[in-house]
């Protein structure tokens, strides 16, 4: 079978700093018609640059210095720009990561799809409209005749991504490049979009180049997998083979770094160090510095491209034939052994569940946060967005409560409400039995050191114009922990050093600016800043969702160690079920401003009761080979919190909807001392559930 | 005493500014990390070249700031034997450029010409009357037959002047090389090769090249100015070069003082509106929408006229004409400042609205950091780039605004020499046939050099102070992000000047 797309020895330079950066260095791949080829790698590994090079859409600083890109035998790199424009959108379609940014906000969606068609199909007038309708129907946009006249802002994220897919499909491309197509979407929406892409691919017999960092998505979608590291492909294999027996140490580590419940009582495997700077010339294996299986040869000789099995190639000395020392097999075994011994080095005997503490550290009762909607000239209040509508939860000292939900469900607002960063409409927030809502600004200031927050995006949570020392000292100074000024400044310096050491950064780091650090290091700094005031409760708002898998593992390990050392309690706000499974003691699932189910982690994740929890859990893509899960596909998207449906909030999307659901909000049903849910399927008292099916 | 020092209002403010600058310099020397950023400014070749030119302008401006009244001749004494001082206030620049100031002609003459620009009736020694271009009193007066000797004389003089300038320059290069060589303890020759290969950390090569051009040009101009009007003369025969030199101070004052007066309003109100939201935002928004919906020329005209009336009714307060003109200049700056903060204020409000939602601001709230500290430590440093760009862009538009106001008759005092008055005067001359182009040309060249060097320098400052500009090599994603950010920045700045101009004219 001949390949549809054949890339050979592609080399791309980025001319930005003093030295050119070898963003892609000798990359070769082949994609066959009808095949999904996944390019897997962490940020900065050159995945996106590869995609842009194939489309010849590199930024001005980028230069393709070597290689060839052949689409059905036609060399793309030597085509004149005018001919290349006929290829883009026509023979190769592309979907970008951020649907909010890739659609023009002042053009109707129909017109944007039509633009592609005008360019490539020659359809005009009524025929064009019919084709647009057809495309929109094909990507599952309901009521396309009306929707095509609407603007992107009237579409939700998932719907926008569908429009993007429709645009990419408009030219009936032979190859679809999808650059992190679902990274910006929620799990349930992601499941819908992945489903759609799979269906379309089978229908049209398209080849798909899927670029992602998510092993779960790869497992769901890909036929073949290529792992990229530092500008090179280091391993390619069939999906089955890759997930059963990954060969390269880096691939191993990627799997080991994923948090799961089985690893709860251990630290996660982390990959030490960072991706090397691509501006230097490599003399050996690019991964050698971070690889625990590396020996001298790895540093001296660039590893060859070895075939370990049919269709399974790897770039590693462990598998090369002239390896005299040990056979690859024994090496692999020792590899997994060392992996285990590395685990033993991190003895994390977490949560021996000391339920001696009777009083909860934080107790939130019936918290409501409504944002008024202003209208008209005099800004009359025309309605309320009920972002948080009666949330109750409690956290004991040293425990972790995870607040899970999709974007827009109000989980971040709960966090900010507890922090008193936004005004609370009603309800009570009691910290150590002290009502925070009654305190004025000054009294609150004294309480502030007891609870702190870590934000999602480490790039925007540190002031770029302040040095690390100033960032960390700010909290200490603002909360006036040291009253004596001169002694304070010296003590502060010492405190800052210790804090940095605690989060695993050198003390010299304090003299530098945030931009000099990587994402993971910045998150460590943010954690150090929060720890500086010695809090008892940390609210972690998606602490790892902006980070790569290997870095996520580092941060999760850090959070776990800190919890043990300082008896910290965490309120973990996240949408990542794997992180919940790894870190949390208790879980609360939120939907549209209310908690729909809560309980201990095992209870909720193993035996979800609420249909929403069930759907949410089933939509999470997993890579574990044995797992035969039944995927519950949710229809539609969460409604806006400004316009909440009557009765049970979930009823428009619920597969088990009953007439009563449309009218009455369900009362609490109790399954155990801790496990509760709000659903009409169960009796409101603690009894056996009715029939689930 | 042979002179009586005079400190005008604007002089005092300039001295204050100078003192603040020096104080900041001392502060920076003590704080290593502040110094580090300024050090980075010195690494930009274009920035340092621009600074060299800017310093020349500032030097001229400062020379023109030291005012005094010369003593009248000994014969004139008051009844009690006290020395009497001239009513005319002079500056050091006037003293240095005395030949330029005093050698006035009858009317227009072209640059480097020996004749007037207009024909007039001349009585020849033999009693006949002819109509011809009369010889100038000063310009080229030493030539017997200007028609034949002029070009050769000019070439010779400019060449020797430029040569002298270059000699001084060579001296400077040698001196600098010697000092630097001693500082680094290397041989003189090695230091020179390092400089000329561009291997030094501070781009001495670029600075010295700029200096060479400046010194050669100055040398030539000085040599020529002794005997010619290098840039011609204006309607009343004043040397245009002298007018241009005097205009520099006025331009600098209008540019800096107005900015200084405008900045507190724009910064405080803009940031406060964006940060506090609510009714504070409403009030500030209403103020600046109201202000910017009144035609600013009208507002300025009203204020200037009121001020004029005040000065006239309190004539005894101000003893010299110079003091009166100066006060009017100061008031013009204040009025311009008060009316021109709205644009920057609007920009800052928008940026602050964006910044206040940033997570580091939220984190500061979580620590209970005071509002004032959040404003000064978190928000202000992150809007500085906007302030810098806007003020530099404003600099040129302010000088232009001054010209427009002078045209309406509410600008600087007619006795104050400024680019505005020069442009205004040359406006009518452009319509003459043959055209009198040199006044406009001189004003244009000087303003262009001033504004361009200010622009380039502020660019260098901004780059050095933005920690994000030191891009991390090896992370292509971040590099791409930076690019788009910069493009977006370029767009916001690109829209600024046009926006400003339309609102003013």
TrEMBL record, chain A:
Keyword Disulfide bond among UniProt keywords: no
Transport in keyword set: yes
GO cellular component assignments: plasma membrane
A Pfam family that the UniProt record links to this protein: ABC_tran
GO biological process: peptide transport; transmembrane transport
Keywords, in A-Z order: ATP-binding, Cell membrane, Membrane, Nucleotide-binding, Transport
Location(s) in or outside the cell: Cell inner membrane
Domain ABC transporter: residue ranges: 5-255, 362-617
GO terms, molecular function: ATP binding; ATP hydrolysis activity
SMART domains according to UniProt: AAA
PROSITE patterns reported in the protein's UniProt record: ABC_TRANSPORTER_1 (PS00211), ABC_TRANSPORTER_2 (PS50893)
Highest taxon of source: Bacteria
Family: Belongs to the ABC transporter superfamily.
The protein's name: ATPase component ABC-type dipeptide/oligopeptide/nickel transport system
Species, as recorded: Nitrosomonas europaea (strain ATCC 19718 / CIP 103999 / KCTC 2705 / NBRC 14298)
GN (gene name): dppF
